[in-house]
Design goal:
By secondary structure, the chain is an all-alpha fold. About 70% of the residues lie in helices and about 0% in strands.
Length: about 300
Amino acid sequence: MMVSPVLRCLSSPPFLFFCCLLLLQLPICRSIYCDEDDCYDLLGVSQSSNASEIKKAYYKLSLKYHPDKNPDPESRKLFVKIANAYEILKDEATREQYDYAIAHPEEVFYNTARYYHAYYGHKTDPRAVLVGLLLVVSALQYLNQWTRYTQAVTMVKKTPAYKNRLKALELERSGGVTNKKKGLKQIDKTVEEKLSNELELHIQGAEKPSLWNLIGVQFVLLPYTLGKLLIWRSCWFWRYQIKKLPYSWDDACYLTQSCLKITSDAWRNIDESTMSNLVQKRLWVKGNMESYVAEMRKESKRRR
């Protein structure tokens, strides 16, 4: 007679061994809470009892079996079980988990995991975790920015352009008089360090780190930033959408910068005549922007 694959699988030794193991593990769903006893039976209450009834039952039993009241050695063991049962049933979360374990004894691993998570899981305040995470991320961010900045400064100081600026600054500070032995080829290390501190280096992509740009500081200032942005948007809408006023110089610069998709530092480094010329083109108008792009393409091809 042919045996179906399903029956063959169910009657296989590995499956039968697993079933026996699972049956042996069924009592564990209770034992992890109150050993082999029932937490409700230990307190002499029913599963439908409320928190007040459970509390009264515990106080009554504690007066009877507390080691200070009852010297019997067995009472000490019983009192420990009663106290453990009360700790489980007085908390709504653990009581709910215990009731679930009673109703679903087959879910051994799930019930065990919930128990150990409730009793041995981390009790850290999420707010403390968030603050710690922001501090760590901010510290790493600042360290990364400072490393990039120092590396960029070191590379810039090796360029001829930087050395020429340093020599020009030395001539300016000394009134045009230099040491004839050293000339302009060599500069004292102390003087070089002093003069280099006077030179402001604006390195695109590796700006000097600032505490105000850190993630932690920005997160703390987020409500202020959002409020300021909302007020700015409201004023913009009222001034230019409702009242139809002409754009101010700063706002026109902002629109031009946004249309060209350049950073604030790059925009500030543009000379005033070029900046004024770009603003006058009114690039925030779609047609003007298209004409400007076409003009730049023609000029680029002409240079080639």
